[in-house]
Amino acid sequence: MSSLLLIVMYAALCGANTDSQQENIETLMDNVLVLRVPYGQGSMVYVPLTCGEAYQNQPVTWKKNGMELNPPLQGNQIKVLVEEMNGGNYTCHLSPNGEYLNHTVILVQLDPDNRTVILEEKSPEEGHIHCSASNYKGAFDCTWTITQSRSNAAVLLVKAERHLEKIPCELNADGSGVHCDYASCPYGEEQQRISLTVYIHSYSRLESYTKVFYLREIVRPEKLSHLRISEGKVFSWSYPDTWETPVTYYGLQFQVKLVNHGHSCNSDEHIMQHSITDDTKYEVTVKAKKYVFCVRAQDRHTRGPWSHWSQCT
User: Fold this and answer.
1) Which domain CATH number covers 298?
2) CB neighbours of 205 closer than 8 A, spacing ≥ 6?
3) Which of these three, 217, 236, 270, is where a domain ends?
4) Residue (of 195, 201, 191) closest to 166 by Cα position
5) Cα separation of 111 and 19, whole Å?
6) Which of 60, 93, 174, 310 has the fewest CB atoms inside 10 Å of its own CB, making it the most exposed?
7) Has residue 15 been placed in a domain?
8) Do 294 and 260 belong to one domain?
9) pLDDT of residue 12
10) Could you tell me if 213 and 254 lie in one domain?
């Protein structure tokens, strides 16, 4: 009786363990499975693979990363043992000529995914992804930087959405960012944030990075255009060509700064004059003959990011 009870308990534990393992396996996209494993614990998980319904009664053999498996695995449906972060590309072939039939990539992600190593953190406030837009029409760009130790990493998938509405994005040619185009109404008030998630892998290690934001938080006006001087001391400029109109509704405010000749507009030292104004002209009152005139813009209402400096020496 006790032996029977032990057998039943063992079978229940094995079944529960199998169910738990299945909960940690997710299909991310076609032909890509993600196995989530806990950090710091040596994991060994059997992952079920299927070559395809069309090959149910065919003599199917399997390879991992192009290499024969030892011992060999055969059959349309198999289970492969994934130890720790050792995933890979499993391909199934028709015996005996080895014709390629299908493949499944197994990637491994730490759970929780808070020990990332692939992307550089730009700052604690900004995180790993920087996003910006030049106006409120809906188009925005996001960029990231891969760490030198993971230079082989590649972007697998980018998802962007707002309130379950998908936003189309196009990956840059070098994989360092995306351009997304969300058809929004520039006059409407934002109710939901945009969510952008980047899935990137280095060998079999998968990491995901998510940035959530309102468009108004990332709108940065482009550099001011047509900066000019008249009468030797009055500077004037125009709104950026890409900025929203009418400017009476989408007003900008301007930061003006004069720094000593030979110094950068980004310098916090050697400032000769400083002011914030809503006007697109400014009269200099310093007596110095040589200086650098700097001006940049910011959305007057949202107080979002400042534009890059425009300057005149």
Assistant:
1) 2.60.40.10
2) 85, 107, 108, 109, 117, 118
3) 217
4) 195
5) 17
6) 174
7) no
8) yes
9) 39
10) no
Residue with tokens 């070559």: 51
Number of Cβ within 10 Å of residue 158's Cβ equals 18
State the total domains in the chain: 3
Q: Are residues 249 and 207 in the same domain?
A: no
Tokens of 207: 């990491």
How do beta strands 205-213 and 281-283 pair?
unpaired
Peptide bond into 240 cis (omega under 30): no
Question: Running DSSP on this structure, what letter comes out for residue 206?
Answer: E
Structure confidence by residue, pLDDT tens digits, 22-67: 569 999 999 999 999 988 777 899 999 999 999 998 999 999 999 9
From the list 172, 144, 171, the residue with the least C-alpha distance to 160 is: 171
- The verdict on residue 267 lying in a domain is yes
Same domain, 207 and 235: no
Structure tokens, 67: 């290499």
Question: Which residue, of 194, 217, 240, is where some domain finishes?
Answer: 217
Dist CA 79 CA 25 (whole Å): 13
Q: Which tokens go with 282?
A: 């400014």
Query: Each residue of 108-123: b (16+ CB within 10 Å) or e?
Result: bbbeeeeebebbeeee
pTM listed for this prediction: 0.82
Give strand pairing partners of 290: none
Token digits of residue 78 = 């198999």
pLDDT tens readout for residues 121-144:
988 888 999 999 999 888 999 999
Please choose, from the candidates 105, 124, 128, 126, the residue with its C-alpha nearest in 3D space to the C-alpha of residue 116. Answer: 128
